Amino acid sequence: MNLPDFIAKRTINSKTGQFSSSIHRIAVASISIGLAIMLIALLIMGGFQNTIKEKVYSFAGHLQVTKYTLSNSFEESPTSTDTDFYNNFEQYPYVRHVQSFAFKAGLLKTNEAVEGVLIKGIGEDYDTTLFASNLVKGRFPKLNGEEYSTEVIVSSKIADLLLLEVGEKVLMYFVQNPPRFRQLEIVGIYQTGMEEFDERLIIGDIRMLQKLNNWEEDQVGGYEVFLHDADDEEMAEEAIFGLVESDQYVTRVSNKYRQYFEWLELLNQNVRLFLGLILFVASFNMIAVIFILIMERVPMIGILKAVGAKNSLIRNIFFYSGLRLTIRGLFWGNFIGLSFCALQDYFKFIPLDQENYYMSYVPIEWNFPVIIGLNLLVLVVISLTLTLPTWLTSRMKPIKAIRFD
Q: Where is the signal peptide (predicted)?
């Protein structure tokens, strides 16, 4: 039998002394509330980062391969899809999917207004599942016909500006010499909440852009590379750069849209500071609790020393007392924090302003390694701080301790 743990258990569960009972509840409450807040903050932050990154990646992939050129022309320089990497990307384990794209600037004109936009051409290789979460009305353009399709999807912001609805037709004048135009049919409306995309981007058939640019069938503006793991972006950039043609170069999307990723990193720093402060407060509370428990049990310490108990045994009694309170706090902290996150994930009862936060509700990411790691971190930090006040017991003299009042 572990004698220090047995005595600590009897001490913690003792019903004598309303004061110590209140101290125990305060200690458990401080740890549980602190852990719950940290769990909620980390899971929300993870969900927030994940949502922002997925929105960016769904539009642009993790990497982009384009033609290397020194030209400052507004028009894209075409590159070929007739390359070994594009046709055999499945043999590279870190690559999940590759799809072609092209961009062309133009003006959308209705009877009410004119709006400058950028049309992104996509082909049959486009993975619609990556973008499906952004589609709020309608469907994707049909791209498998013999002739190019004039169906497009526009953002909700562009649709509101031009008073467009699904099923309506609109003229688009393309910026080129000589100018050309096409009548486009709106078949879908998307919304990301990100101004970079919503204010200017529409999506249509890449074959229409190839026709307008007088490109060959295998000529595109570039192709997007999707990875299995976004954390491999840097490694994949170096590897793919060695695989593509000599006139092509590889761009990381996290560099192209750096403003979003730097903003997320800044939020990360704030969360780390926030978690550090909560850990400090929880540790300080436990030190105060153990000091109070020691002062309340001074006569017991004197008696134990009088009958021959070693200082290490007495220190372990109060260490186990604090550890038991900590474990109770961890249990209730996990229960409160995870219950709140589960309710938010299911019911989405906390809304957000999409124009400011790029999403309409507070997201949750269930990252179980983070949950387990945070619990272990709290347990280890508080356990280490518990050793500080227990050394006070080794300085007590048995006679003075027994007579302590």
A: none
Decide: 61 and 225 in contact? Cβ < 8 Å.
yes
Predicted confidence (pLDDT) per residue in 244-285, tens digit? 888 888 999 988 888 888 888 887 887 788 788 888 877 777
**How far is the C-alpha of 63 from the C-alpha of 251, rounded, in Å?**
6
Report how far residue 110's alpha carbon sits from residue 115's, in angstroms, rounded to the nearest whole number: 9
Residue-wise pLDDT for 32-56, tens only, equals 888 898 899 889 888 888 888 888 8
Angstrom CA distances, 196 to 37, 59, 254, 257, 360, stand at: 33, 11, 14, 9, 17
Could you tell me the pTM of the whole model?
Answer: 0.79
Low-confidence spans in the chain with pLDDT less than 70: 1-21, 69-75, 294-314, 389-405
Q: Name the pairing type of β-strands 63-67 and 201-205.
A: unpaired
- Beta-carbon contacts of residue 35 (< 8 Å; ≥ 6 apart): 282, 329, 330, 333, 334, 337, 374, 375, 378
Nearest Cα neighbor of 7 from 395, 393, 399, 268 is 393
Among 152, 146, 221, smallest CA distance to 185 is for 152
Closest Cα partner for 297 from 29, 26, 14, 5? 14
Q: Which two tokens stand for residue 203?
A: 């999506």
Rounded CA-CA distance 289/252 in Å is 51
Q: What are phi and psi of 356, to 5 degrees?
A: -100, -30
